Amino acid sequence: MNVPLPKYAERGPIHDVVWVPLKFYHDQRGWLVELFRNDLIDPKYHPVMAYVSQTKPGVARGPHEHVDQSDYFCFTGPSTFRVYLWDARKDSPTYGKKEVRDVGEDAAYALIVPPGVVHAYKNVGGKDGLVFNGANRLYAGWLKQEPVDEIRHEHDANSPYQLD
């Protein structure tokens, strides 16, 4: 089933990448932001696990890619992240294309990264930042008994996937 994108979602320059602006609802108690709604996202991207990571200023995670897994990242702050995407799928109409976008505190977004899209992010803000991910596959499979679905590029000095 292919669910149409919500009217406010944006397709990235890279085929199948989806950017969903996140809206904060503020009141006297603080704020609330919906990170995921299964009625607005294609079921093939529905999370089966979730985690939150903290990244220090100036630190990057990735680049890496997945063979089967899709990531559903949410960048809400409290810092700014520079997200890097490279289309490594030979059958994609945007094969070889690179996309870079700053998101987080001043531009909160959810991001769907399909398999075969190399991705990385770097905290370019001045404070610790938090990132939520709702992946559509279990890390290391059921009960962590399978190989991890990652192709890592960050330690390869000759990799074409370099952060600026």
What report would you give on this structure?
This protein is globular. It has a 6-stranded antiparallel beta sheet with strand order 1-2-10-7-12-5, with no helix packed on it. Strand 1 (10-11) and strand 2 (18-21) form a beta hairpin. The chain contains no helices and 13 strands. It has one domain: Jelly Rolls, CATH 2.60.120. The chain has 164 residues and is mainly β. The chain starts with 9 loop residues before the first strand and ends in a 12-residue tail after the last strand.
Name the features.
EC 5.1.3.13, RmlC-like_jellyroll, 164 residues, 5-stranded antiparallel β-sheet, globular, RmlC_Cupin_sf, 6-stranded antiparallel β-sheet
Low-confidence stretches: none
- Helix content range of the residues, please? under 10%
The N- to C-terminal Cα distance equals 38 Å
Judged by helices, strands and strand pairing, the structural class is: mainly beta
CATH topology: Jelly Rolls
Q: Compute the gyration radius: what is it?
A: 16 Å
Oligomer: single chain
Number of helices: 0
Largest sheet: 6 strands, antiparallel
Counting DSSP E segments of at least 2 residues, the number of strands comes to 13
Strand order, largest beta sheet: 1-2-10-7-12-5
- SSE pattern: EEEEEEEEEEEEE
